[in-house]
Amino acid sequence: MIKLCGFGVSNYYNKVKLALMEKEIPFSEEAVFPGQEKSFLDRSPLGKIPFIETEQGCLSESQVILDYLEDVYPNKPLYPANAFEKAKCRELINHLELNVELQARRLYGEAFFGTPVSQETKDEVRKALDGALTGVARLAKFSPYICGSMFTAADCVAWVHFFMVGIATEKVLGENLVVKHIPASVDYLKFLETRPQVAKAAAERGAAIAAFMAPK
Questions:
Q1: Does residue 187 share a domain with residue 155?
Q2: For the whole prediction, is pTM greater than 0.85?
Q3: Does residue 40 sit in the same domain as residue 19?
Q4: What is the pLDDT along the chain (216 residues), one digit of tens a residue?
Q5: Which of 82, 88, 121, 154 is the most buried (most CB within 10 A)?
Q6: What are the CA-CA distances from residue 144 to residues 39, 110, 184, 192 (Å)?
Q7: CA distance 55 to 46
Q8: Which domain holds residue 19?
Q9: Distance between CA 21 and CA 1 in Å, rounded?
Q10: Is residue 116 domain-shared with residue 163, that is, in the same domain?
Q11: How buried is residue 183: exposed, middle or buried, by Cβ count under 10 Å (0-12/13-18/19+)?
């Protein structure tokens, strides 16, 4: 059985978790936090989460994990069969992760941990996200899923990142830039949570966030 290692607040952890659930792959969970101890680095070479343990060994990096799951468990695919449509799905994932989430992450310290970021950083992130989210809006189909009629890996990615980026920008920049540039994302996220696996993942994420934010 695959073991998913990380913690339930992480958007990348939840990306992998939702993929496992949607593909109906049996898995267990181990709550771990990033670290630099040798024993941890033996499992995740940069000390990051999430990673998975398999019979063959450990794998890190969420997109590598999704591609591995697709290869090893081809039933219930999360990518279109058509080569161009599959590439468009991956294109959208790359934009969401490299151009949207990676920029928004610069706000997470202030949004979630109370560590202030400079006004210069806020201005840079706002400018970058204005362009990146406009680009995602051009690519997204929402018919009804983000790549079209099929639920794909891009929906796993959009579900976690729209949520996290929206919260961070609203808290730090004063407005939810996801909703501003992609108004259809509001109904899209509600629609996704009509899927039983997404609803279950959302409930478990909510519980993890509540536990994380509770006074210690």
A1: yes
A2: yes
A3: yes
A4: 999 999 999 999 999 999 999 999 999 999 999 999 999 999 999 999 999 999 999 999 999 999 999 999 999 999 999 999 999 999 999 999 999 999 999 999 999 999 999 999 999 999 999 999 999 999 999 999 999 999 999 999 999 999 999 999 999 999 999 999 999 999 999 999 999 999 999 999 999 999 988 876
A5: 154
A6: 44, 34, 10, 9
A7: 21
A8: 2-72
A9: 13
A10: yes
A11: exposed
Instruction: Note whether residue 78 is domain-resident.
Output: no
**Phi, psi for residue 213 in degrees, rounded to 5:** -85, -10
What count of residues does the chain have? 216
What residue has token string 């952890």? 13
144 cis-preceded (ω within 30 degrees of 0): yes
The first and second tokens of residue 133, run together, are 């989210």
| DSSP 8-class letter at 99 | I
Distance in angstroms (rounded) separating the CA atoms of residues 9 and 1? 23
User: Same domain, yes or no, for 6 and 63?
Assistant: yes
CA distance 159 to 206: 13
When divided into structural domains, the chain yields a total of 2
